[in-house]
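Translate sequence into structure tokens.
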Amino acid sequence: MDQKNIGVNLRRIREAKGLSQAQVADSAGISRVAYRNIENGISTPKVSTLQNIASGIGVKLQDLFVPIRTLNKVRFRALKRMNSRDNILNEVAQWLDDYNYLENLLNDREDYQFHDLANKLSLMHDRTNRAKYAAEQARELFGLKVKEPIRDIAGLLDSSGIKVYPLSLASDGFFGLSVSEEDGGPAIIVNVWERISVERWIFSAAHELGHLLLHFDAYDVGLSAEEPDQEVEANVFASHFLMPDAAFESEWADAYGLPFISRVLKVKRIFQVSYKTVLYRLSESLEKSIWGKFQHAYKLKTGKTLSITDEPEALSPDKFQQTPEVLRSLEPDSLSSSHFVEDRLSRLVRKAIERDEITMSRGAEILGLDLEAMREIVSSWV
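Result follows.
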């Protein structure tokens, strides 16, 4: 009996059904602590206990023994040590397997378009110029106009053969990871935790795209510490990918008459990036002290000092009461979470259900929904 597989599958199924550990424990007639130890792989349960758990959550006993594939070609770096690292990798592996299964079942796969660019970039050694060149070439391959802001980065990546997985993890030290083509990708996973702004989701997706293009030879699940030079290069890529030079310079010039704070925030809103991304770009062409000037101007205007996680002029929570789908983030004029939605997998699930290739409950499992939510989605299809 593989306790690790049982625990991973229990967690995956429980979260997909929207159940708490306490609810599963109650349905199985055991204590919450006993269930938690089973899910965490600490204790070895009796078969009868597993049968009760499986019945309680509405799955077959054998569903708890499904083997979990190990990912190897992954770039998963973080500043802080993460106890949930293995769980995340297991969840991503299951998601990738489901995604690839549907693509093969339906013979519907988007080709990855960036092999030649990645190979060309590997021959360049000037990191700053390489990152900017990569951003320019990637935009061209995506078919973006020179001054065109990116309005749907998840859809853009999907259309070019890069799978996107929005994963919610309560952590301010993990923003995203990526998986190479050799391991079922290419795929980009973004932490969409509600306390991380949508703007940060978008930047993280662009950042991981930078790693896929610039550092495809550094994908190794055994490495967990960040490499500063590569992180900086991916940040440069993301900044120039989201705000190409010509567009940024034009919008910055157009806002010439505005106060410094208002000018930064206007450009930020246009490109759907953090104010920090705008300041970073300004620091490339102006003096590095631009950061201090912004902080000083902000304090003069508001009487407050910005912390590392703050975004100025944040919308208050009451602004979202009428629209609960909007993220309660700390970004000014915050974007709706609909600005970062992965929808290709949803299309594949719909197609498979309509063709009777998979059941509605299997579709719900793949999308991480409970069956009731899946029924509501199916009934809304037109």
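Note: Confidence is low (pLDDT under 50) at residues 314-333.
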